[in-house]
Design goal:
The protein has 193 residues and is mostly helical. Helices cover 47% and strands 7% of the residues. The protein folds into two domains: 1-91 and 172-193, no CATH class; 92-166, no CATH class. The strands form three sheets. A three-stranded antiparallel β-sheet has the order 3-4-7. Strands 1-2 form a two-stranded antiparallel sheet. Helix 1 (32-49) packs antiparallel against helix 2 (52-68).
Length: 193
């Protein structure tokens, strides 16, 4: 799931559900209860396998929750809407041209890594960021070490997230629900272990 478009590769966190069978196209709404449960799942998977990718997903999702869903009193909001400016996903998708301006030097690698194509992989020539190949493919194709690949991809994510912060944000459901907060807190406990 974390390789697909269901996962927000730039900002962390998971969308509510996928609209297709291959996890590529999300319904872009982000729910607190989904993210709490998925943090628990990926934390437990990391505990069992020690796969660093699972830990990365946990860390990025918790960073998303802290940054975008946390109330000043330390409770957590219910959800972020799928729409901004009246369009589903507009906050999260990119044209190839937009990404070329943002990423510049490593565009070829990053576009390959996140399945970005000139004509777009979604509606209106836009791209949903998702992965179809494992890191070993990119290490070989671009003659990079694991550290070099991680550094380049992390930098690109930061640049995309910074550019996205200039966009009109999706609506926020600022209800603080006890049961959903409990699921998120369980995620924090599982991540702590």
């Amino acid at each position: 799931m974390a390789d697909g478009g269901l996962y927000d590769h730039a900002g962390g966190g998971f969308a509510r559900y996928s609209t297709d069978g291959i996890w590529k196209v999300p319904h872009f709404e982000k729910m607190l209860y989904d993210n709490g449960q998925l943090v628990s799942l990926y934390a437990q998977a990391y505990q069992l396998t020690k796969n660093p990718y699972y830990k990365q997903v946990v860390d990025e999702t918790l960073n998303f929750v802290e940054r975008e869903m946390k109330d000043k009193s330390n409770g957590f909001y219910s959800s972020l809407d799928a729409d901004s400016e009246g369009e589903e996903g507009k906050f999260y998708v990119w044209t190839a041209e937009e990404l070329k301006k943002i990423i510049k030097d490593d565009y070829d690698l990053v576009s390959d890594y996140f399945s970005v194509v000139e004509r777009g992989n979604w509606e209106q020539n836009t791209n949903i960021l998702f992965k179809t190949k494992d890191d070993a493919y990119f290490l070989n194709k671009y003659s990079l070490s694991e550290k070099e690949l991680k550094t380049k991809i992390d930098k690109a994510k930061q640049l995309i997230l910074a550019a996205r912060s200039e966009r009109i944000r999706p609506g926020l459901d600022d209800k603080i629900l006890t049961s959903w907060n409990a699921l998120m807190l369980k995620g924090y406990v599982d991540a702590y272990r």
